[in-house]
Amino acid sequence: MVLSIDLDGTGKTEIDTGIGFFDHMLDSFARHGLFDLTVHTKGDLAVDCHHTVEDTGIVLGTAIREALGEKEGIRRFGDAILPMDDALVLTAVDLSGRPYLGFEAQFTQERVGYFDTEMVQEFFYAVACNAQMNLHIRQLAGANHHHIIEAMFKGFALSLREAVSLDERIEGVLSTKGSL
Q: Nearest CA to 95 among 72, 115, 112, 122?
């Protein structure tokens, strides 16, 4: 797998996972987060999409953690409530160094395209654990699974973009303990 991310980018993407809908979600994440993202992976898609999606989440989370370095000067927290047609999704991020995923969604459809809907939670779990971030995602409304999932990826992008943004008023890291 080849994956790189520039958190201070402009939303340029080069993505090929072999799963069209997942490529669309990663592209939406990068464009709305203004992250430059390259992802090239070849998974065992003849079996299913599980390993490809999970491994992409692991490597993306690791790349985010490494790109943040010591986290000096970043806002640390970010949140969004994102509407997409019938869907409404809340996302919140804390780049605390403590991994956690709170995830609430109701999928009644097994897949969107060749992407298994149960992999949404697996992907975000892998990202949160490997980025060592606290991530909450809540579906507040929606029936169309494409819209719900896309609102999750775009909301995560906006939340992360806010959390990684620099604030010149922050000296060191934003923590009462002096470290994250």
A: 72
What single DSSP character describes residue 47?
T
| Residues 67-91: tens digit of each pLDDT | 999 999 999 999 999 999 999 999 9
Q: Sign of the C-alpha dihedral, residues 77, 80, 6, 19?
A: positive
Q: Phi/psi at 45 (nearest 5 deg)? A: -65, -15
Q: Give, rounded to a whole angstrom, the gap between the first and last alpha carbons of the chain.
A: 29
User: Do residues 155 and 80 make contact, with C-beta atoms less than 8 angstroms apart?
Assistant: yes
pLDDT at site 177: 80
- CA 60-167-29 angle, to 5 degrees, is 30
Residues 23, 128, 17, CA angle at the centre, nearest 5°? 20
Tell the residue number behind the tokens 């692991």, with chain if given. Answer: 58
Do the Cβ atoms of 22 and 61 come closer than 8 Å? no
Separation between Cα atoms, residue 52 and residue 93, nearest integer Å: 24
Instruction: Let me know if domain 2-164 sits in CATH 3.30.230.40.
Output: yes
pLDDT, one tens digit per residue, over 16-44 is 999 999 999 999 999 999 999 999 999 89
43: tokens are 């998974």
Place of tokens 């605390």: 96
**Cβ pair 59, 86 in contact under 8 A:** no
Q: Where are the domains of the chain?
A: 2-164
